[in-house]
Amino acid sequence: MSELDPPIAIVRDVVARALAEDLGTLGDLTSLAVVPAGARGRGALVARSPGVLAGSSAAREVFRQVDPTIEVRWGAVDGAAVAAADRLAHLEGPARSLLVAERTALNLLCHCSGVATLTRAFVDAVAGTATRIRDTRKTLPGLRALEKAAVRAGGGANHRESLSDAVLIKDNHLVHLTVRDAIERAREQWPGRVVEVECDSLEQVAEAKAAGPDLVLVDNMSPREVAEAVAVLSGVAPVEVSGRVTLETARSYAEAGADYLAVGAITHSAPALDIGLDFDHRTGD
Amino acid sequence: MSELDPPIAIVRDVVARALAEDLGTLGDLTSLAVVPAGARGRGALVARSPGVLAGSSAAREVFRQVDPTIEVRWGAVDGAAVAAADRLAHLEGPARSLLVAERTALNLLCHCSGVATLTRAFVDAVAGTATRIRDTRKTLPGLRALEKAAVRAGGGANHRESLSDAVLIKDNHLVHLTVRDAIERAREQWPGRVVEVECDSLEQVAEAKAAGPDLVLVDNMSPREVAEAVAVLSGVAPVEVSGRVTLETARSYAEAGADYLAVGAITHSAPALDIGLDFDHRTGD
Amino acid sequence: MSELDPPIAIVRDVVARALAEDLGTLGDLTSLAVVPAGARGRGALVARSPGVLAGSSAAREVFRQVDPTIEVRWGAVDGAAVAAADRLAHLEGPARSLLVAERTALNLLCHCSGVATLTRAFVDAVAGTATRIRDTRKTLPGLRALEKAAVRAGGGANHRESLSDAVLIKDNHLVHLTVRDAIERAREQWPGRVVEVECDSLEQVAEAKAAGPDLVLVDNMSPREVAEAVAVLSGVAPVEVSGRVTLETARSYAEAGADYLAVGAITHSAPALDIGLDFDHRTGD
Amino acid sequence: MSELDPPIAIVRDVVARALAEDLGTLGDLTSLAVVPAGARGRGALVARSPGVLAGSSAAREVFRQVDPTIEVRWGAVDGAAVAAADRLAHLEGPARSLLVAERTALNLLCHCSGVATLTRAFVDAVAGTATRIRDTRKTLPGLRALEKAAVRAGGGANHRESLSDAVLIKDNHLVHLTVRDAIERAREQWPGRVVEVECDSLEQVAEAKAAGPDLVLVDNMSPREVAEAVAVLSGVAPVEVSGRVTLETARSYAEAGADYLAVGAITHSAPALDIGLDFDHRTGD
Amino acid sequence: MSELDPPIAIVRDVVARALAEDLGTLGDLTSLAVVPAGARGRGALVARSPGVLAGSSAAREVFRQVDPTIEVRWGAVDGAAVAAADRLAHLEGPARSLLVAERTALNLLCHCSGVATLTRAFVDAVAGTATRIRDTRKTLPGLRALEKAAVRAGGGANHRESLSDAVLIKDNHLVHLTVRDAIERAREQWPGRVVEVECDSLEQVAEAKAAGPDLVLVDNMSPREVAEAVAVLSGVAPVEVSGRVTLETARSYAEAGADYLAVGAITHSAPALDIGLDFDHRTGD
Amino acid sequence: MSELDPPIAIVRDVVARALAEDLGTLGDLTSLAVVPAGARGRGALVARSPGVLAGSSAAREVFRQVDPTIEVRWGAVDGAAVAAADRLAHLEGPARSLLVAERTALNLLCHCSGVATLTRAFVDAVAGTATRIRDTRKTLPGLRALEKAAVRAGGGANHRESLSDAVLIKDNHLVHLTVRDAIERAREQWPGRVVEVECDSLEQVAEAKAAGPDLVLVDNMSPREVAEAVAVLSGVAPVEVSGRVTLETARSYAEAGADYLAVGAITHSAPALDIGLDFDHRTGD
Questions:
Q1: Of F16, F37, F65, the CB nearest to C2
Q2: Which chains does B contact via 3+ CB–CB distances below 8 A?
Q3: pLDDT digits (tens, 9 = 90+) for B46-82
Q4: Nearest to F188 by CA among A155, A53, A112, A265
């Protein structure tokens, strides 16, 4: 059990659904027709571009659910930087089983590694500062646990797992209350939980400061505004920046003193890392 | 029931899981603490960048499952091109319910619309040719039906839904058989189904031609090679191109005469379309 | 809620799975391509052979899950004898929805009605006697509740619903104990539950009698032997006959005085009743 | 993984549900009361009538889920013709576990083998012709994958797995379009997929021919009409016959030149094959 | 498989849900951060108060699902009386895995053992009489199978498992029928099943007696009234007492001659038995 | 949507499972046999002892799933103190539906109200102090969300929802690290989350203080020790007390200055609140 793995119960469930989705009602027509039942296969999961590996526990579970006799020997661990042509895992087992598992394992591995790779790019962009890259709740439905684990593999940190683990007060919540009253009610209702407040302007930051939040999320501000917010909130609450953070701007926000950069793109817009399964074709029956 | 919708049974299931994932064990701490139980809200789903809408049936189902009294009036339909600032839907209902549904609805809508938008870009790139853009099985686990519907909304077509609806013979299947024997066995085992063959070289194309497949998938060829393959296979089988198809190269492959371009990126690497929920803050209790 | 309906929670679940199975990942390709989105349809569920109706609550649930705007007006109720060409239900709604629901509704209706029809044949075969036809646990996996309801619709009665609602001691349980000891242990362990004993011979019947079971199941006996068993057990326990009961033999077993005839065939080997959906083709948009 | 097996993910799920259905809330009252916890049992799955075996992977999964220490040694494989009294499998393990698994394993095995047996009868009826027997979507809800595998075990072939893997245009779809327009729209909407057309008359066959379908399904025609349809469609599309195909008529349809006979009865009306579990009663503790 | 275990299929499902509930989306934050991945742990499940053990098969399944390499050696079996400080099981395995499994295993074990302990107290209260303690359908939703097994572990017996395994006619059912008619209809509709009747007064008992039920449930009577009811029903039907049965009153009801005491409190109000997991802290890596 | 309700998605799922569990395969034998199909019923949910209401959204969902035509008019809301004989809700609908829903609705309502009632007793015991009563992860598997909502209805507050929403470092985590190092690693790994530390002695409290936790959980200390811990940690971290908190001791811990009392008993050992469904027997058809 690694700190970079999603909970095993979720992995089992995601993989079972993914296999059902890809196998359909009849199974793998092609392998069943064309590959002899007794044939064995050997191959490797190979990176085709450089990136950061993630999702290996999900891929492992795919092979296990398809056929527990498939042997998988990993040559890399989640979080490792991989280069194009790196062999990530060696596979050996019944050829039909390997072919049936191939696409589902790769779909999971390529997506998770894509998330880890983009996360790492943001982490590298702020290297040398104390700023941490964090994810958001902007995840793909059904895949949040895997994506949040992949963010950790990329060196990022996890923000809220759901609506139910911290209070985050935004504009849209403040139609009927001041920030101060809102924080007070949140602390009363959910004592002992983190209360964050989103601010869109330095005026709101000042107002929030007075109300004593645990964290201030500044949205859509320039690095210069962020620096001011950080100064205002110094010693009061850490500052998280959201809204305009790209690979180009991340460093300037970090240098403005932000504690966290919240980046939705690392989960909702990460391109897949290109990984393939290369079969060793000399394998006989 | 639109031809751009995924099957409703799948939508119900995906949405139920997505809500469970986002609500956690306690629910939306913030709204429950800060927004009065009786408050009503009004707002709109608004595009923040241009693109193609998809996923509206999933978003509609989110609102329905959270609170059937939420009214949703769509101002755009799946497949429509939307501009930044376009109001896609008007929402009205209990404020807590709208806030609880917001993120899950947006996660589905932004992802599906992202898939549709990237698909449309490929479709536009080959506009004026007879070439169709098709998806692949490189989809995100659990979301295949929604992504394939989004591909249709973008103007693309769907390739296999699973391993079980057509035969696709690749290199990795041909360790023990010639192409001709493989096709024969596939037709024997699964009569009446489409049999496709993947070819990596013009030699393989010639060999495949002789074996009479229903479709030839040429992988990793240049547009010039594709043109040759198309010529060879003219009148025998349509030609699908995979492997190097990007927005830059798509047109040259189309002009080479390919019937289909198979593009994994439209499902596995589509960035989310930026859509938000803007609340109308003058709404009272 | 009729005594001929299966529990609604089971019906909902069976129907949701059946629809997912039949709709696949893309949906009904044909209707989506060929039938206009706004077209409406009208039609009827029509019996094509005579039989007994069952499964209407499952069919109704199919239409409801596919599209709650479909109107279904039943012209017959479960348990009713229907003649060829009888209109069982009138349907009206969006044409695509009717076509999507058609096969799943019919698969459920035809199977349940097949079970009811075969059950009724057995019931009719023993008409005028006090003998009741009962089902067994030989049901199709996942469909037990629907089949047992269909047995009731046919006029039969339900035997055990599962291994957990009554004790039924067979030969295979008696390797280590006498019948008497077995019954005693069953009464000790599960007080207040029905304890049945299976007997393959008149000697066993005598032995069972002494042990005081609640019911004796005589297996593979001739009607003459059954008559003897009934005489022996008179005033002690009712007698259920299993093992050679066919439509031809049922009456002679009934006339031998059996209280129940247990017939596995009514659930595991009932041919579907032929029911179809006839569309009224003059329906316009 | 055999080409005669259903996908393992589906088998796992069907078996888990079947066991939950048969075990109820308390478990097997009888074995728990009457059979000592430590007792071991030995026995065999034995055919009681001749037929074709199918469903062995499902039966194997039942034993595995009930108790992985049960040893099962198969003496026959799916697709094998078995004679009455043939021992299909040898079983050994804890006696309670064998008794708990017995009925669920048999229910699956008897139904699947029944489907395979009836399929084989149709296959034998057309032996020596080039005609293939095919199944339909008239399957028992929840059991489609197992039934379609059993059809293959019987020597039949699988038609559509769901509404989503091929287009099949019937009368009911043609209220608003000509056949030609319908086929065109289907090819436009779902390019690369098989498009079939159902015809009820030779006039429709002629009309369909002109429209270029991939397969023509002729419904409710006499063998003589089928022969005409085959002649008309020669070189254009294979012909599938549905609607009046029985064991008696199958050969005449085959001799009329039909490529496929579509037989709903092999899945919806196949009587169970009689298979039992015989315990070896000399087994001690 | 012990007669004190719930069905394994239910245990697997309850445990999988319980783990998903306790692990959340990220997993055990604490262990993953603080305990080295390779660290091993050793410990024991230890009773902190005296009681009766139950739920061990559920606890075992928790450890298995979290990590099959965890070794569990039980020192006590379900149904055993345990003293404070008794070591119930020895555990050894990866430290993170033990910590992740700890709370879910204990929640199941403490609740089931609490049910068994309270059941045993009632059983002890009637010791020496022929009266049996029985449970009711007043169980905690989702946990009925586990609670009913725990009742057996405590020496109690199980009453109905669900609404579907016996008829129990109460006041509320008798708005439209006399008791006699109700019993007759129940026997007609559900032949061969146990028919119980609830009586609130001795008049009703007399009326019920005449109708010939299989069991009479007397509700809210004093021990003296119960003794009268027992006398009236002697030789006709056993008597079950419900409604005022407490640890204080149980014996007087037993001495009044009741066959069964139905006690809802043993499932709906049993306090957890205090059991903890003591780690052996000298364990190194 | 009330802050005292559990998330609706969880309620739907818990209720669906509870109904499946209670209805079995055949349904409510008694009502189906004895109550006429068309009969209507009227009644009330009535408290039989004083307490605090909780679980009404679950009970409402039971009636809705059984039969959406049942009308439920609540006379009390979750969190309200109710007296014996108070009518909590008025019910009207088909008599069979009411009888089918009765037990499942009551099982949920009585358990949740039991939790709320015991919580309120603890809350009342510390009335006038600033101390809050909090729950723990010692909940009944599958019912956590409902129990935590019931705790809120009783006036308590929720501690962790799962292992994944806050760090809580206990003895068992500190085999390999000092408290200071453990906190540091937790903050590094899960930045922005609450980090709590459990202390068993005042020495540990001093050590923890130096490490700067967000909350200190003091376990198994006397009120006097707690007062010292509170003094030591004043201005550093709030103090939560666990381990010896009973209704008798709660006030002395509160007066010692504890911020929170963590009480496992309110979820794992709360006796059900006695609530019944009284039918109005004059109701006709």
A1: F37
A2: A, C, D, E, F
A3: 999 999 999 999 999 999 999 999 999 999 999 999 9
A4: A155
> What is the DSSP annotation of F84-136?
TT-EEEEEEEEHHHHHHHHHHHHHHHHHHHHHHHHHHHHHHHTTTSS-EEE--
Spot the catalytic one: D42, D64, D87, D103.
D103
**φ, ψ (nearest 5 deg) of residue C90:** -100, 135
What confidence tens digit (pLDDT) does each residue in F162-200 have? 999 999 999 888 888 899 999 999 999 999 999 999 999
pLDDT of amino acid B175:
81
Residue F113 distance to chain B (closest CA, Å): 17
CB–CB of D211/D191 below 8 Å? no
Which chains are within 8 Å of A by 3+ CB pairs? B, C, D, E, F
**Which residues is E81 bridged to in the sheet?**
E52
Answer yes or no: A259 catalytic. Answer: no
Q: Find which of C172, C185, C279 to mutate to test the D interface (most D CBs within 10 Å of its CB).
A: C172
Domain ranges of chain D: 8-123+271-279, 128-268
Alpha helices in B175-281 (DSSP H): 179-189, 202-211, 223-233, 250-255, 265-268
Please give the model's pTM, rounded to 2 decimal places. 0.97
DSSP-derived 3-state class of residue F224:
helix
Tokens describing residue C205? 């019947």
**B145:C25 CB<8 A:** yes
Could you tell me the fold of the domain covering E8-123+271-279?
A: Aldehyde Oxidoreductase; domain 3 (3.90.1170)
Tell me the C-alpha distance between B251 and B245, whole Å: 9
Render pLDDT for E26-61 as a digit per residue (tens, 0 to 9).
999 999 999 999 999 999 999 999 999 999 999 999
Contacts of A24 in chain C (CB under 8 A): 24-25
Which positions ≥6 away from F153 have C-beta within 8 Å?
F4, F52, F53, F54, F78, F79, F112, F116, F119
Q: What CA–CA distance (Å, rounded) separates E216 from E231? A: 12
Q: Which residues of F touch E182 (CB under 8 A)?
A: 33-34
> Minimal Cα–Cα distance from F274 to chain C, Å?
27
Q: B25 contacts in A (CB within 8 Å)?
A: 164
Torsion of CA B101, B102, B107, B111, to 10 degrees: 110
Catalytic site positions of E: 103, 138, 170, 198, 219
Decide if D1 and A26 are in contact by the 8 Å CB cutoff: no
Q: Are the C-beta atoms of residues E32 and F169 closer than 8 Å to each other?
A: no
**Residue-level pLDDT, tens digit, chain D, 285 residues:** 899 999 999 999 999 999 999 999 999 999 999 999 999 999 999 999 999 999 999 999 999 999 999 999 999 999 999 999 999 999 999 999 999 999 999 999 999 999 999 999 999 999 999 999 999 999 999 999 999 999 999 999 999 999 999 999 998 888 888 999 999 999 999 999 999 999 999 999 999 999 999 999 999 999 999 999 999 999 999 999 999 999 999 999 999 999 999 999 999 999 999 999 999 875 444
**Contact in structure between F236 and F255 (CB atoms under 8 Å):** no
DSSP A245-259: --TTTHHHHHHTT-S
CATH architecture group of domain F128-268: Alpha-Beta Barrel (3.20)
Radius of gyration of chain C from its Cα atoms, rounded to whole angstroms: 23
- All residues of chain C having their beta carbon less than 8 Å from the beta carbon of residue D263 are none
E111 and F268 Cβ atoms separated by less than 8 Å: yes
Residue A183 has pLDDT above 60, yes or no: yes
Sheet holding E132-134, edge to edge: E132-134, E260-262, E239-242, E215-219, E195-199, E167-169
